[in-house]
Known about the structure:
It is built from twelve helices and no strands. The chain is mainly alpha-helical. It is rod-shaped and about 105 Å long. It starts with a helix and ends with a helix.
Amino acid sequence: MKIFLRILLASLLFTSCASKLGKVLKSKDNEYKLKMAEQYYAQKKYNQAQQVFEDIMPHFRGSEKYEDMFYKYSYCAYYQKDYINAESLFKTYLDNFPNSTRAEEIDYMHCYAYYKQSPKVDLDQTATSKTISLMQAFINTHPESSRIKDATQIIDICRNKLESKEFKSAQLYFDLGYYKAAAVAFASLIDDYPDSDKSDEYKLTSIKAYYKYAEMSIADKQPERFEKVITECADFNDRFTNSKLLGEVNDFKTLSENNIKNLQNEQTKEASKR
Length: 274
């Protein structure tokens, strides 16, 4: 019974609001409509405010009130989480009012609306990459802005997301047994994110992948491929002199050296039989 009453009350409230909005939109008094749009906006009724602003904005185009209307109209989309439309409106605002005192704020919000479109790591990261470019452009354009710290943090978040996606792709190659592809992918991770605190882990996994690739190779190809593992281990020692993973890396180096020696011994035995 209580649930039914709540639904009934909500329905009546919605009908009442819709009826009131309908009367506002039917009015021919644009100043009254503007007053109501402002009221809806102040009350955080962004859907209603958006509809009224949209209705009257053509009538106020070119007036001194138009900029503030467009400003609030843009935020109506943002507050309703319509980030695609908000991003477009913020950009249009900048195009129409490049000298506005709000230009820096809206420039940032244009970038931020792109950031809000950034999806989960597993999905396409076009919006994430675009956010990095836009936030960096914002930093370059507004070097004295109080929003620089926030912009920088968002860039870091986006880079971490892109790094995570690339890591998952590389790890998938490894898990599926595509070891050469995995080795190359993890090496690319290090090149793409040289400041990552996981670089030594990526390098070790690349070494593991090269080692497994060598193990699976035909005998004629194994010496060359185990040599590649040894070279990668030496590179690890040069790059990550203080890494906790050095012991494991040196184990792969020793294993590879032993495998090469065993292969050479077998070749010597085969040659002596001839």
